[in-house]
Amino acid sequence: MAINVVILAAGLGTRLGRPHPKPLTPLADGRSILRQQLDHLRGTFGDQAHVTIVVGFKMDLIMEAAAADAAFVYNELYDQTGTAKSLLKALRLAPPGGVLWLNGDVVFVPGLLDALTPAITADRSFVAVNTASVADEEVKYTLDEHGYVYQLSKKVVDGLGEAIGINYVSSGDRTPLVEHLERCPDDEYFEWGIESAIAEAGVRFSVVDISAYGCVEVDFEPDLVRANELEFTR
To answer: I need a labelling partner for 219 at 20 to 30 A (CA). Which of 12, 23, 37, 91 fits?
Structure first.
């Protein structure tokens, strides 16, 4: 089954304090965050994955590192816009169908993608979540009475878990999501677009619990330490 994959890698990544784009941060096994992601995607989906990377900050470095594995979309306003506008650019240009997208700083074990495959195969929009952790600074979520995502942001109070930065929009929900990302303030994250599409267009995102799998979104140095404690196989 062919699958569209987008990796958001345009940002400055200033919180980690590296001179290079955060996705190129080396990990303990010798690969960068981006290389691990690409390897895991190929290991799960093989040649069926059509991978697009949204680039911005020092884009030449990312393009050189992934030239054989992906196409690229340039967010020329990478220093002025959030992930919502990067995702919007990619969704506008991706081939028809649903789209799996990943933040470019998410480190995860290979089996996690296998856990997402049933929902992708069913073409069901979802947010991958970790119910074992609910840190204040992370994106959190709540559910409506039918079990679908109701709120999704860092501002959520009494969240049920954390969104880990891996999501899927179905072929049917892609157009309304694009419309709401277009309305999104320039500096906002893509979660704003998801919340807006849920509230105003009736789009439904389910959750897929990946708490059993190692996954770390690397924002700060302690996150990188935790990411390097995960056990990987190529």
So the answer is: 91
The Cα–Cα gap between 45 and 37 comes to: 12
What whole-number distance in Å separates Cα of residue 18 and Cα of residue 121? 37
Q: How far is CA 64 from each of CA 22, 172, 202, 218, 233, rounded to the nearest angstrom?
A: 15, 34, 41, 22, 24
Locate the DSSP E strands across 63-98.
71-74
Q: How far is CA 72 from CA 51, 64, 119, 182, 205, in A?
A: 8, 11, 26, 20, 27
What pTM was computed for the model?
0.96
For 15-52, how does the pLDDT look when each residue is reduced to its tens digit (9 = 90+)?
776 778 999 999 999 999 999 999 999 999 999 999 99
Mean pLDDT estimate for the chain: 94
Closest C-alpha to 51, from 104, 12, 6, 1: 6
Token pair, residue 126, equals: 């979802």
Q: How many CB atoms lie within 10 A of CB 178?
A: 16
